[in-house]
Amino acid sequence: MLYGTNDGGLWHPNWNQNLKFAIKIQQKAEEMYPGLFKPIMLTQSRYNQHTGKYASIIEVGATGNTLEQCFNSMKYLAKVMDKALN
After folding, report:
1. Gap between the Cα atoms of 24 and 26, Å rounded
2. Which tens digit of pLDDT belongs to each residue from 45-84?
3. Helices and strands in the chain, H and E counts
4. Environment class of 47 (CB within 10 Å of its CB; exposed 0-12, middle 13-18, buried 19+)
C-alpha cells in the first residue's frame, strides 16, 4: 500500500487517518494471510488521497507476477477488506 503525506508541502490534513486505516488493513491481512502484503510505503506526495477519508492506493502484483496471479490475489484482498471494515 502506498500512502502520501503532507511532507512535500501540499495540503493533506487526513494523511494520519489514512495511515491508521492502512495499518488496520495490513494487520488484518497479516492475521489472515501472513506475507500477503508488502510493507506500507509512505511518500512525500499525496496522490489525491487528500480528497476523501480512507483514500488508498493498493497495488496488486509486480513485474514478476502474471495477470492471473493478480486476479487470484484479489479474492484474498476482498476477504481482508471485508473483515477489516466489518
Report:
1. 5
2. 888 888 888 888 888 988 999 999 999 999 999 999 999 9
3. 2, 2
4. middle
What would the grid cell of residue 21 be? 486505516
Half-sphere exposure of 44 (CA within 13 A, CB side): 3
Q: In the 8-state DSSP scheme, what is residue 57?
A: B
Q: What is the DSSP string of 21-62?
A: HHHHHHHHHHHHSTTSSPPPEEES--TTGGGSTT--B-----
Neighbours of 25 (CB within 10 A): 22
Strand-pairing partners, residue 3, are: 42
pTM for the whole thing?
A: 0.80
Distance CA 11, CA 52 (A): 13
Distance between CA 49 and CA 67 in Å, rounded? 26
Q: Give dist(CA 60, CA 75) in Å, integer.
A: 12
